[in-house]
Amino acid sequence: MGCKSCSSNGLPKGCKNNGACSTGGCEKLSVFDWLADMEMPGTVKPFDILEVRFKNGRKEFYRNLNNIPLRMGDAVAVEGTPGHDVGTVSLMGELVKLQMKKKRIAKDSEQIKKLYRKATQHDLDVWKEARSKEVPTMYRSREMAISLKLEMKISDVEYQGDGSKAIFYYTADQRVDFRQLIKEMASAFKIRIEMRQIGARQEASRLGGIGSCGRELCCSTWLSDFRSVNTAAARYQQLSLNPQKLAGQCGKLKCCLNFELDAYLDAPKDFPDTERRLDTKKGNAIYQKMDIFKGIMWYAYPAAGTEWVPLEVDRVKEIMALNEQGKAPESLEDFKLEAQGPKGAEYENVVGQDDLTRFDNKGRRRKKRGGHSRGQAKPGGRQNKQAQMQSGQTAQNKKRANPNRKKRRKPRNDG
Prior knowledge:
Number of strands: 14
Shape: elongated
Largest sheet: 5 strands, mixed, barrel
Helix content: 25-40%
Order of helices and strands: HEEEEEEHEHHEEHEHHHHEEEEHH
Oligomer: single chain
Number of domains: 4
């Protein structure tokens, strides 16, 4: 639960972390303030610069000259160009210094504007009304750009808090002359117009979405700097150069290709040179691929084609040491890594019976009401006649074996 959904007058009731929770539910691209629960010494004044977040992760720094008591997640009215804007406090305290150092902004920079006040109900109403116009304005501006035959795409519109200005974010492959477009939009919307060109990655971060991993896009949740990604990152990780799998929703290479690149660059340092061939009496083997996590390298003979031989790194170094001494082993198969199949699940039988289907009495047949079971023959049937013949022959054989045997008389019923 985020502080915004469970708060009342700026004081959270659910998580009790006073805006320092890292659930991400409070706002987009939120920062975990790990110094929020620590009190500063009495002789140290709190840092008077705040970080304020606006729509879709846009953040700027503002100076709190009047020392207004604020908390993370509070709506504030800040200086705009012109007028005022409304945003949300995303970070405050000593960690703001680190963010300013990261973005190379000095404390006395002119980019740092003033913080007017904590947003009143009137400010929030005007801000809400202005934000409700963003989607219709974006659709109307797209129609104007199409009518003027401009090769550009307006991806998002952001109104200022007081509703006097709007920022239009667009993407274009080439330089676009939109002077006529600005005139038509200014006369149609009666506001100040500002055009900002963004890249494909910035567009995806503003729109958001779900990636192929099943989670929300990194650029729209926590990633703030967009580094260049090239196909060399995929080659180092031995990934197939398939653009459908390597490209993200922005149409560019996925940013996550850079996340593990350093590990793939450091791991091969312990592996032998892949350019060297392994000399054997059977022939010269050429390197094919490697698995840096399992420490396995695959080699193949040119005449063998797709028959690759897996070797451990120590075995490859041993063969190279023999080659340096002028010796050559018989073949790579002598050093081949034996494939180990997956082990079955081991469990202990606490019941004492191995058969899990012991309760399924498949052999038993339920008897029908007629007196014969499903497997028995019906009276008068062929099987029944054969059984009677066999029983008659058995009785004759017994009679021949004991001819002096007397017949048992049936009891006479005189009544």
